[in-house]
Amino acid sequence: MKYLLIYAHPNPKSFNHALKETIVARIRATGQQVTVRDLYALQFNPVLSGNDFVSFSAGKVPADIATEQAFVKEADVMVVVHPIWWFGMPAILKGYIDRVFSYGFAYEVTDKGVRGLLSDKKVMVFNTTGGPQETYKQYGFTASVENIFNAGIYGFSGMQVINHTFFYGVPTVTQKEREDMLASLTKVEF
Ligand code: FAD
Q1: What share of the chain has pLDDT > 90, as a percent?
Q2: C-beta contacts of 185-189 below 8 A and 24+ residues apart
Q3: Using CA positions, which residue lies closest to atom 16 of ligand 1?
Q4: Do 12 and 19 contact (CB within 8 A), yes or no?
Q5: What contacts 136, CB < 8 A, 6 or more positions away?
Q6: How far apart are CA 48 and CA 35, in angstroms?
Q7: What confidence tens digit (pLDDT) does each residue in 46-83 have?
Q8: Which pLDDT belongs to residue 28?
Q9: CB within 6 Å of ligand 1 — which residues?
Q10: What is the mean pLDDT of the segment spanning 128-156?
């Protein structure tokens, strides 16, 4: 399997960074390939601009988008690692989706309705939260985030979500609990 890991966190000392490194090590240990696209390190431009629309309507894909689409095309499994910010994804990742998951690449409209075009791909999502699991349960936040990401974005694009893991309350749990969270990745099948 060819994995493409999309990573969105600006801090190299963050827990998300440790999560990303652990997942990369796990995939490589199985002898499989993983390509990492670290959106902050790449200084990925997340703003879908007027010029992008002009290019798309002329049948041209802007170069930075074409680069990312080539990585997506090559992958069998996309792994997405990021914190939950304002009950969504960091803006840089939202902008990656806005620009890279474009019409004609990720989806199209046919006589029969919208059709996802990435149906040969699977997705695994790993999120950290500030809020505790009880709050997520009480307010239905987990289900909301799952619906938006898994049905609204990845599923809409035809992708099959095979894993969505939440690591809750990461800044406030104990160091041991965070270490256990990283250790739990050994149970995830890559
Ligand atoms: P960090 O803060 O980087 O790290 C947490 C702790 O883990 C630190 O003590 C760090 O030293 C430690 N750590 C680092 N590496 C390791 C390691 N290898 N092993 C063990 N410990 C380690 N939360 C919500 O629930 N809902 C929201 O809507 C929401 N909105 C937010 C919006 C913004 C703009 C921001 C900045 C935060 C928001 N949060 C929200 C909180 C956010 O989700 C959490 O702060 C984040 O998920 C924690 O992950 P992190 O990687 O940033 O952790």
Answers
A1: 100
A2: 185/19, 185/22, 185/23, 185/26, 186/26, 188/26, 188/124, 188/163
A3: 15
A4: no
A5: 129, 142, 166, 168
A6: 24
A7: 999 999 999 999 999 999 999 999 999 999 999 999 99
A8: 97
A9: 9, 11, 14-16, 18, 83-87, 128-131, 170-171, 175, 178-179, 182
A10: 98
CB 67 within 8 Å of CB 105: no
Residues 21-42 have pLDDT tens digits of 999 999 999 999 999 999 999 9
Cβ proximity of 37 and 71 under 8 Å: yes
Mutation pick for ligand 1 pocket among 84, 125, 144 (CB with most ligand atoms within 8 Å): 84
If you take atom 5 of ligand 1, which residue's CA is the nearest one? 171
Q: What is the DSSP letter of 189?
A: -
Give the closest residue (by CA) to ligand 1 atom 19. Answer: 179
Q: Which two tokens stand for residue 43?
A: 């200084």
